[in-house]
Write a structure and sequence with these properties.
The complex is a heterodimer of chains A (309) and B (426).
Chain A (H helix, E strand, L loop, with lengths): L2 H15 L17 E6 L8 H9 L29 E5 L6 E5 L8 H5 L5 E3 L5 E3 L9 H5 L6 E2 L9 E2 L5 H5 L5 H5 L5 E5 H14 L19 E4 L18 H11 L4 H16 L2 H4 L2 H7 L14
Parallel strand pairs in A: 1-9
Antiparallel strand pairs in A: 1-8, 2-3, 4-5, 6-7
Chain B lengths: L13 H23 L1 H4 L10 H13 L2 H11 L6 H25 L20 H28 L13 H39 L17 H28 L5 H29 L10 H22 L1 H5 L1 H25 L14 H24 L8 H12 L17
Bound molecules: iron/sulfur cluster (3 copies).
Chain lengths: 309, 426
């Protein structure tokens, strides 16, 4: 084993680690009959009833409905947290108020699902990204990974903290009902339905009212698509939404992961290779170690280290 | 021939008391975490779910424990047997390092009692980088303990003397130890190779962890080749850790460091640093991120500090035989490499990370620092205990001294040390 061989070994490992260019942008792809919600921010009146309904439906700390009528909440920008799965914020990009509701986007290729060490997050066949508390170890990698900064953690709970985020009102969906926030909305700002149909609906709306909307359905392609979709009169980045590309976030890591572990061939090959080196170089171990080490040193570099100290 | 033996030395010194105090301070905050939660002692929140417990306790801990696998590979796979004297201390550092990674996680994980979940086949998550890291670390930790077994067996074989009633078991235990000894020496080679393989896998995967946050990471550090860079830097930092540890342990126990071995390691490190540097530079050129360095920002400063202070300067220093052969010179350059890698992990996991909706910059709370410092102090104390109980550090025998004496005047043969357990020279 000389230095050249060693470099070759590193090179071959490196190759396995660099993802191929041909990586698909959707490791899993949009679901055929996933559901979703279309949020038309041009319709929203900022009544915050969805927040109240969400808290009630998900057994979050409840407050009086009337307390949600206060406009003081709009004074600062709020994010969903462990006891609020959805919040409405007010923006005035052109002077006039626009309200935007925020919650988990239920991504088509969710970073949280890809990240989770024990698959506590799963993408159900209906599109819901659901959390299974019984698996979770609280590593919070899902929180780190989410490009929308959605999952929240109960940092002040010493023994039984949970990851918290919009559940898409799973129980209501399973009963055939719409999510609580959608049901309560007094102005039909939120539309619940099949994601594909919602995308069609969104484009029809834009076509019919080109002056009302920017020609972009936020969530149709962002990070590989999301179940929640947004229409607006200004770019969504002006309503506090991140500017994201169309590649699913997990695609690079999963490509790396899959190339390292492709049928376990690379690890087994490396194992065999190391064993082989061990076998091939066993000679100069005991017998001629003395002469060898005079000229050949760690990684083949000769060194005068033997003479001084 | 027995080459290693437990150190006979006073356990309590002034340094030990200082370490004990640091450990206790950390334990106080750890206790607070188990009463009031992670939020009570840390600055972690929904913007910054990971802090120094991941960047230092886990990522740096794993990287700095790399001495275990690089030294094992050098001595046993590439058969540079003269380095065998360094294998045991490096193995012990790795063993303790990984054990403390697990201990640190017990503080950081919200539901620490579920830490074993990734072992369950029903929970396996092949798509998760963290799963790969977790499972490899668990298996590797087991392998490390198996690799350490011969040392434990050596300590007690032929010396089993349980008192009183238990005395009747002496013969049986003695028999078992001998059986162990024979089987272990046969299969140990496979475990050593497995250890190297597992290390390569999870050292690189640790880098892949942050690849999943392209929108939250500074372009100076976010690259798809992060796994490769992590692997290279882990391999590079292995020897400097062995160097540091040897020099410090010798100083603490009043022995002579194995300078002839350490200096040649130093030379190899210099080469590896240049390789690592060229990969870093190449990656930056390909991604066109060099202009980021010209903008005056904390990120640019930290990046330059990491690369110049932790890679370029020590690489140049180690090229000089004069520095390499002097104890302070070697110590200083090894320390710079080690700190450089720690800084790199901190940069990747903390400096580079900006939440989408950042309202503040993360800086560790006193509780986080105390827990991390406490873990490190306990680790050093455990190292001291272990080398005093188990035959880890090589002894300078009369024969060795004779060889060393010759070494001073001529190019003498290196110390011969049997491969696997130090004492088995078939
Ligand atoms: S928005 Fe975040 S939490 Fe929700 S599915 Fe996407 S990645 Fe997961
Ligand atoms: S915190 Fe829980 S849900 Fe999130 S990645 Fe860790 S184990 Fe999975
Ligand atoms: S879908 Fe349910 S959980 Fe999600 S924001 Fe609406 S009400 Fe809340």
């Amino acid at each position: 084993m000389d230095r050249r061989e060693f470099t070759k070994l590193l090179g071959s490992m490196g190759l396995a680690l660099v993802p191929g260019k041909a990586a698909a942008s959707h490791p899993h792809g949009p679901l055929a009959d996933g559901v979703g919600v279309l949020v038309d921010t041009t319709v929203c009146i900022g009544c915050r009833k969805c927040e109240w309904a969400c808290n009630r439906s998900n057994n979050l700390p409840e407050e009086e409905l009337s307390s949600f009528e206060s406009k003081a909440a709009f004074d600062s920008y709020r994010r969903p947290d462990a006891s609020h799965y959805t919040v409405v914020n007010e923006f005035k990009p052109n002077g006039e108020a626009i309200w935007a509701k925020t919650q988990c986007m239920h991504c088509e290729d969710p970073a949280c699902v890809s990240a989770c060490i024990v698959s506590a997050f799963k993408k159900r066949s209906d599109g819901v990204v659901a959390y299974d508390l019984s698996r979770c170890l609280g590593c919070r990698y899902c929180i780190l990974a989410c490009p929308f900064q959605i999952p929240a953690y109960e940092y002040d709970n010493a023994f039984t903290p949970q990851v918290r985020k919009c559940t898409f009102c799973i129980e209501r969906l399973d009963e055939g009902k719409a999510p609580a926030c959608v049901s309560i909305c007094p102005v039909e700002c939120l539309t619940y339905g099949k994601r594909e149909e919602l995308i069609e609906l969104a484009h029809r709306k834009i076509e019919r009212n080109p002056d009302r909307y920017v020609d972009h359905v936020y969530g149709e392609h962002e990070v590989g698509g999301t179940s929640w979709l947004y229409l607006s009169s200004v770019p969504m980045t002006e309503l506090g939404f991140p500017d994201l590309g169309t590649d699913a976030v997990p695609c690079v890591t999963e490509t790396i992961q899959h190339s390292i572990f492709k049928n376990f061939i690379p690890p087994i090959a490396l194992f065999a290779f190391l064993c082989q080196i061990m076998w091939l170089t066993r000679e100069h171990g005991n017998s001629d170690d003395a002469e060898k080490s005079d000229t050949v040193d760690a990684y083949g570099g000769g060194d005068e280290g033997g003479t001084a100290s | 021939m027995i080459e290693a033996a437990p150190i006979r030395h006073k356990f309590f010194t002034r340094g030990v008391y200082v370490l004990l105090a640091i450990a206790l301070f950390g334990a106080f905050f750890a206790a607070k975490r188990f009463l009031y939660g992670i939020g009570a002692i840390s600055n972690l929140n929904d913007q910054y779910p990971w802090g120094i417990w991941i960047a230092i306790d886990v990522a740096s801990g794993v990287a700095l424990a790399a001495g275990g696998f690089t030294t094992a590979a050098l001595a046993h796979i590439f058969h540079r047997h003269r380095y065998a004297a360094l294998v045991r201390p490096a193995l012990l550092t790795a063993l303790l390092g990984y054990t403390f990674v697990a201990l640190g996680l017990m503080v950081d994980l919200g539901r620490f009692y579920n830490i074993w979940h990734p072992i369950m086949p029903s929970m396996w998550s092949g798509h998760s980088v963290l799963f790969e890291v977790g499972i490899c670390v668990m298996i590797y930790l087991t392998v490390l303990y198996i690799e350490f077994l011969p040392i434990a067996v050596e300590r007690f074989m032929g010396r089993v003397g349980l008192p009183g009633l238990l005395g009747s078991l002496n013969g049986l235990i003695e028999f078992l130890l001998r059986l162990f000894d024979r089987t272990l020496s046969r299969v140990m080679a496979l475990f050593i190779v497995a250890g190297v393989l597992l290390s390569c896998l999870h050292q690189s995967s640790l880098g892949a962890l942050m690849v999943i946050v392209p929108y939250k990471m500074h372009p100076l550090w976010h690259t798809p080749v992060l796994p490769l860079l992590f692997l290279l830097s882990a391999i590079t930092v292995g020897f400097p850790m062995v160097i540091l540890e040897s020099i410090w342990a010798s100083r603490s126990f009043g022995r002579k460091p194995e300078m002839h071995l350490l200096s040649s390691m130093g030379k190899a490190v210099s080469v590896m640093l240049f390789v690592y540097f060229s990969f870093k530079l190449g990656d930056m050129i390909i991604r066109g991120t060099l202009p980021w360095l010209l903008q005056p920002s904390l990120e640019a400063f930290m990046y330059l500090l990491e690369i110049i202070g932790g890679v370029v300067v020590p690489a140049v220093m180690l090229m000089s035989p004069k520095i390499r052969h002097s104890v302070p010179g070697l110590l200083a350059s090894a320390l710079m490499v080690v700190l450089g890698v720690v800084l790199n992990r901190i940069n990747v996991f903390i400096t580079a990370y900006t939440p989408v909706y950042a309202t503040e910059r993360y800086f560790p709370a006193i509780g986080e620092i105390a827990v991390t410092a406490g873990l490190i102090a306990t680790l050093i104390l455990m190292y001291r205990v272990m080398v005093m109980v188990f035959p880890v550090l090589a002894v300078e025998t009369e024969a060795d001294r004779a060889i060393d004496g010759r070494r001073d005047t001529q190019k003498g043969p290196p110390i011969k040390i049997a491969a696997l357990a130090g004492r088995r020279n078939q």
